[in-house]
Structure formats: structure tokens, C-alpha cells
Write a structure and sequence with these properties.
heterodimer; A: mainly beta; 7-stranded mixed sheet; 4-stranded antiparallel sheet; B: 120 residues; mainly beta; 6-stranded mixed sheet
Chain lengths: 117, 120
């Protein structure tokens, strides 16, 4: 089954304690992305990756890091979480334009609800 | 820069009523895509529809229909005979080519969402 898997689904942590949210996709997609969702603000992009070892900032990258060492994985790293990073996080993937049968549809993971105390 | 506006923050309707969710977008590109996603109370994002800028045909899928009008930069979503299971937050989104092919292409910009409550 084609899917984007995020872990953990729920996480409560304390300020300053480093954490990693994992994201893995089994569709061989080149493009992966992280979003955060906050009430009244919709979804905003944090970082994206066009392919292995290629990452770039989205609209709200401050306080986050990512890495793309393998095509299937795109972890989101919070080196020193703060309460304003309490949010619902989504990982997404899609193929790059030009690939055979390309459809411009992003597939989203189930979300990770993070609380930073 | 691309922008999506969903002016309706929250809507409440009584079951079986029709409801239209508005979406207005801004883009400088001639090639772009529009989307609607549904987020039920469980939190996941469910893809509903994608439309590209060259296809202005309206679409109907069961009780759902979408009205795409380039002249007014709108992509509105209508639910006919609403049901309690339609209660969710609905997001409209825009994806444009955005510069050189392959350089940040087709980034997805979301509206702030409309929360629909269908009352039994």
C-alpha cells in the first residue's frame, strides 16, 4: 500500500530537549516536504526536498532542521524545541514533474501532534 | 507570490442543506493547479480534487461539485444535501510552477481553511 508514514503520532516533550520526527514514503517519490498546521493559519511549509541531499527552506524554517540522506526518508529535527513549536506536523511526498505518469498530487502522512511544555 | 484566501472561517448548516465553500486564489503563473483537501476530526488530510489551470470544466462527484472560474480566480466547492459526516475542516490549495522548472516548482500553498459543522 502506497503511504507516507510519520512517527510518532503524538509527542509531549519539554523545552530544549532535542527530538526527531521521522517520515518515510514507499512510493519512490523525489519530492518530500514538511508542514505545520496551526489554528487560524492553515498549513505552512517548513522545509522541502527535491531529491536526495537537496533541501531548501519553506515559509517557516526557523527552529527546524531536516536531512535527506535516502530517497524514502525525510526526518524533521527540532534541536531545541520551544513552546511556539507546539503544532500539528505533516509530512508529504510526490514525484517530480517529468516522471512518467506524473500527477501533481501530494500524499500526506497522518500527522504528528507535538506539544512542547 | 501565490496566495489562497478562504474567507469563511466557520460555517454551520443543518443536515440536508446545501453549502458552498469559497476559495479565491492569486497567482502570476499561467500554469497552476488547484486542490481541495478535507481534514476530518481525526486529523488526517484527505485529497478531494485537483484541477489544472487549463481545465475550467466544472466537476461533480456524488454530492460534491466544484466550480472553477479563472475570470474571478475562484475555485468554489459545493456539498449538496450535507451530512453529519461532512463535518470537517476544508482546505483549498494552490500549486504553481514558480520560476525555473525544477527550482522550487509546484510548491503547495494552503488557505487557512473553513470549518464546516453539519448539525443533525
Amino acid at each position: 500500500e502506497a503511504q507516507v508514514t510519520q512517527n510518532p503520532r503524538y509527542l509531549i516533550t519539554v523545552t530544549g530537549k532535542k527530538l526527531t520526527v521521522t517520515c518515510s514514503q514507499n512510493m519512490n517519490h523525489e519530492y518530500m516536504s514538511w508542514y505545520r498546521q496551526d489554528p487560524g493559519l492553515g498549513l505552512r511549509q517548513i522545509y522541502y526536498s527535491m531529491n536526495v541531499e537537496v533541501t531548501d527552506k519553506g515559509d517557516v524554517p526557523e527552529g527546524y532542521k531536516v536531512s535527506r540522506k535516502e530517497k524514502r526518508n525525510f526526518p524533521l529535527i527540532l534541536e531545541s524545541p520551544s513552546p511556539n513549536q507546539t503544532s500539528l506536523y505533516f509530512c508529504a511526498s510526490r514525484p517530480q514533474p517529468g516522471t512518467s505518469g506524473w500527477e501533481n498530487i501530494q500524499y500526506f502522512g497522518a500527522g504528528t501532534r507535538l506539544s512542547v511544555l | 507570490a501565490q496566495k489562497v484566501t478562504q474567507a469563511q472561517t466557520e460555517i454551520s448548516v443543518v443536515e440536508k442543506e446545501d453549502v458552498t465553500l469559497d476559495c479565491v486564489y492569486e497567482t502570476r503563473d499561467t500554469t497552476y493547479y488547484l486542490f481541495w483537501y478535507k481534514q476530518p476530526p481525526s486529523g488526517e488530510l484527505v485529497f478531494l480534487i485537483r484541477r489544472n489551470s487549463f481545465d475550467e470544466q466544472n466537476e461533480i462527484s456524488g454530492r460534491y461539485s466544484w466550480n472553477f472560474q479563472k475570470s474571478t480566480s475562484s475555485f468554489n466547492f459545493t456539498i449538496t444535501a450535507s451530512q453529519v459526516v461532512d463535518s470537517a475542516v476544508y482546505f483549498c490549495a494552490l500549486s504553481e510552477l514558480g520560476g525555473l522548472m525544477g527550482a522550487g516548482s509546484y510548491q503547495l500553498t494552503f488557505g487557512k481553511g473553513t470549518k464546516l459543522s453539519v448539525i443533525p
